[in-house]
């Protein structure tokens, strides 16, 4: 088996021994450890060194333990004394080994830094409390373990460093002063709202960081009809603090017969500040666009602690790319929010530069021609409030759920056909107000309950909202959409009542369920794809998934081959006197032969994805010879690379009996370990 990755005790994190040694002792120490291991100079001394590193690591990665030590000087001194005692014991055992001597020098320096860090932290906390409490209430300044643990990660579940302090400003006016204070304290500033992002924007990367949580900035105005700059008629708007939860704004709009267009899957937890910073969209973006299209203005604090107000001029009250030019007035103010800082400037951006023709809801220009705040993920300032336009709600809505069971490339054109169908219905006043695409892997991850009676999981699901002021027109359009699905090996289901429509959309919001299928970090990104090319795109993504899956399976074979080449565990009964060789016989050799045969087949599949599947290929019992390419056959499951059928079952037969059960258990453990390293791409 491979060498143990975790010899350092108390390591409950995702960091390996190597990463911990590099962070605490440095590259040189890791090189020395590897050299000593090769020279077989490791043993009790290495164990004691790892215990020192384990103590340092667990205390730097557990804010609760750190708080306990910060509050008790005697306990700190006892801990540091114990660390030095272990290092002294290693020194007594090292003899004349210069490598161990150098390693101990590095460890001594690490213990010195560890001890000094407590004093530095105490001093910095006192100073920070003194500076920050002039701006906001003391209970808004949190150094405690609970606050720091709660703000170490976001929806990615990726943890790098715990923040030094978490700040909860009571009012918008406090934010600029807090930013300037953090600059004075030399703290890296991390803006944070609901913490629902999948891009890691709210994750501290340095221990000397301050998270400014804007959730208390939850002012929500009544719906107001305002005449926006450059327009002559009033339009419905709502003003929101950065901490207002998206769902609250949606409900406020609905109560007034209006629609708040920003509708991310995280609407029940995400906040307005994050919606602006991420340019959030959602299912409604197909009709009304993303946050960018619906913002009338927003206010933010820049990285140097100044205020900035960005106002959309001559708003076209629709998608921004439909206007020839979009104009934004940018006004800057001092930290008091009143004194102007320079003259206002107007940023003019060609409307066509935001989205190329044929694209759906996302933007082409991710930088947005330098437009401040929006889609910058908090990197150019902290959003503190925003004003959005609201749209008139149509009287009738039909939600259509389409399940496709044929090939993805044949089903995906239905997206284009549906959008074209409604776009071409001139004069009918029927609109597509929501559209979401879920692929097979996403459906599996969220545990999608198939509505069809076919008894199998769909290859793709489309959920769409059709709206109109004419009930008959909405119903007719929904029926036509179902008919289009029927022509592409699909089935359609129409929901009329609000409760039924809500159920149809539930699976879209279950993105967190993907976490059980992932390891450590998820990458979530909107990809700009012209709708007519979606079929090619889906095939390309599935090609990536199949390649990654086959490579993961080959990695499994490597691990199993190494396992069967070593000492195999047995459960002795009355046959212990026979010895391992007699009990095992030729089983290890037979297992390695099985691995070689399976490897030949799986490697052939990986190397010949574009080949005609009708060519000679390694046989697999029970598989009919399909047509098309190898990739297509794997995609539609007419051929498979199966751990269960090709490896696990033959191994069970080969090692049947309780004596050999530990071998099978270890094979399963190896499989699970390798499987966790697999990456896959899910689309929605």
Provide a descriptive summary of the structure in words.
This protein has 684 residues and is an alpha+beta fold. The chain folds into five domains: 17-130, no CATH class; 141-213, Uridine Diphospho-n-acetylenolpyruvylglucosamine Reductase, domain 2 (2-Layer Sandwich); 220-392, Uridine Diphospho-n-acetylenolpyruvylglucosamine Reductase, domain 3 (2-Layer Sandwich), CATH 3.30.465; 396-516, Alpha-Beta Plaits (2-Layer Sandwich), CATH 3.30.70; 534-676, no CATH class. 41% of the residues lie in helices and 15% in strands. It has 23 helices and 17 strands. The chain has helices at 17-24, 27-38, 44-60, 63-70, 73-93, 98-132, 145-150, 172-184, 246-255, 272-278, 285-288, 291-294, 408-411, 413-423, 440-446, 471-486, 498-505, 534-564, 580-584, 587-607, 630-635, 643-654, 661-675; strands at 141-142, 165-167, 188-192, 209-213, 224-226, 235-241, 258-259, 295-301, 307-313, 325-333, 345-350, 382-389, 391-392, 396-404, 430-439, 460-468, 490-495. The strands form four sheets. It has a seven-stranded antiparallel beta sheet. α2 runs antiparallel to α6 (98-132), α3 runs antiparallel to α5 and α20 packs antiparallel against α22. It is flat, with a radius of gyration of 30 Å. 35% of the residues are buried.
Layout of SSEs?
Layout: H1 17-24, H2 27-38, H3 44-60, H4 63-70, H5 73-93, H6 98-132, E1 141-142, H7 145-150, E2 165-167, H8 172-184, E3 188-192, E4 209-213, E5 224-226, E6 235-241, H9 246-255, E7 258-259, H10 272-278, H11 285-288, H12 291-294, E8 295-301, E9 307-313, E10 325-333, E11 345-350, E12 382-389, E13 391-392, E14 396-404, H13 408-411, H14 413-423, E15 430-439, H15 440-446, E16 460-468, H16 471-486, E17 490-495, H17 498-505, H18 534-564, H19 580-584, H20 587-607, H21 630-635, H22 643-654, H23 661-675
Parallel strand pairs: 2-4, 3-4
Antiparallel strand pairs: 1-2, 5-6, 6-12, 7-13, 8-9, 8-12, 9-10, 10-11, 14-16, 14-17, 15-16
